[in-house]
Amino acid sequence: MLISKLCGEKDFTTPWFVRGCIELKETFRYHRKLWEWCYILEALRERSMLYPFRRGLGFGVGREPLTSVFASRGCEIVATDMDAEKAKAQGWADTNQHALGLDDLNEKGLCNPNLMKRLVTYETVDMNAIPERYHGKFDFTWSSCSFEHIGSIEKGKRFLLEQMKCLRSGGVAVHTTEYNLSSNEDTLEAEVLVIFRKRDIEEMVAALRQEGYLVEIDYTAGTGPFESIVDVPPFHFNPHLRLQLGQYVSTSVGLIIHKP
Ligand SMILES: C[S@@+](CC[C@H](N)C(=O)[O-])C[C@H]1O[C@@H](n2cnc3c(N)ncnc32)[C@H](O)[C@@H]1O
Predict the structure, then answer these.
(1) pLDDT top residue among 237 and 198
(2) What residue intervals traverse the membrane (predicted)?
(3) What average pLDDT does this structure show over 176-191?
(4) In 3D, which of 205, 110, 109, 198 has the Cα closest to residue 157?
(5) One-character DSSP codes across 102-147
(6) Which of 4, 107, 214, 255 would staple 218 via disulfide (CB 3.0–4.6 Å)?
């Protein structure tokens, strides 16, 4: 299984990344967010999750294209995000990163609108209070660039454990997040954004494994020419694989978690 290695090195010329860009109708570019979407798409595709009748649950989906791509494969999707008023207060609506309904989740027309209506439901869910009615109901769960925004490092860790309850046995969870490349000691921890240190991720992985889950993770940060460039606010550069957040340089990391 090569995905975690290739993703860890952020090798953008690999077929899975090119295929992801084409499927998502995204211009090929060296962008962290695009890497996260392609990583999730490929991780679920490789693990045979993207077939009719599979049930998927997305958290903090914003306007990302993954919901519509999964529905176009015949998957039944519950796409969730935080309450609209709170999203506005936190700035997600103003930066076009919060959806109000199905149309916002299919902006690129990746899924036939009738199929989208039939297969996708949109619900308001706080990632810190996952409804019990979801427990044991899904083949896969995912989130992209979301669980670093739910309040604290501790809340992020709790979310990863709690969302596993939504999976059926044999299910797979794929989640991407912010990863601190500058320090394994200090980090940024604010209400709207945390950057996880390696030790935070290691603690999450240990807690997940203790519960009997199988975790795939690769911390390789990559040493290519694009990875040496650090984008700074207001973040309009290409490449945008590493970014400066306060005093820290951050990139993305992904976890693939199996429920046996
Ligand atoms: C950076 S945006 C990412 C959006 C989308 N996943 C993407 O990749 O474009 C962060 C998302 O997390 C959501 N979010 C933040 N806190 C949340 C919470 N407590 N519960 C649910 N969603 C939350 C926001 O509404 C927003 O959609």
Answers:
(1) 198
(2) none
(3) 96
(4) 205
(5) GGGGGTT--S-HHHHHHHEEEEE--TTS--GGGTT-EEEEEEES-T
(6) 4
Rounded Cα distance, 248 and 152, in Å: 17
pLDDT tens figures, 138-151: 999 999 999 999 99
Give the domains, in start order, of the chain with CATH numbers: 3-258 (3.40.50.150)
Cβ of 31 less than 6 Å from ligand 1: no
Going by C-alpha positions, the residue among 109, 110, 105 that lies closest to residue 63 is: 105
Name the pairing type of β-strands 214-217 and 248-258: antiparallel
Amino acid at 161: L
Q: Is 105 in the pocket of ligand 1 (CB under 6 A)?
A: no
- The three-state secondary structure class of 211 is coil
Q: In this structure, which residue's CA is closest to atom 1 in ligand 1?
A: 145
Q: Is 127 a pocket residue for ligand 1 (Cβ < 6 Å)?
A: yes
215: helix, coil or strand?
Answer: strand
CA of 151 to the centre of ligand 1 (A): 11
Ligand 1 atom nearest to 86, measured from its CA: 25
Q: Is 40 in the pocket of ligand 1 (CB under 6 A)?
A: no
Of 146, 159, 160, 195, the residue with max ligand 1 atoms within 8 A of its CB, to mutate for a pocket test, comes to 146
CA of 192 to the centre of ligand 1 (A): 10
Which of the pair, 228 or 6, is modelled with greater confidence? 228
Tokens of 58: 């997305």
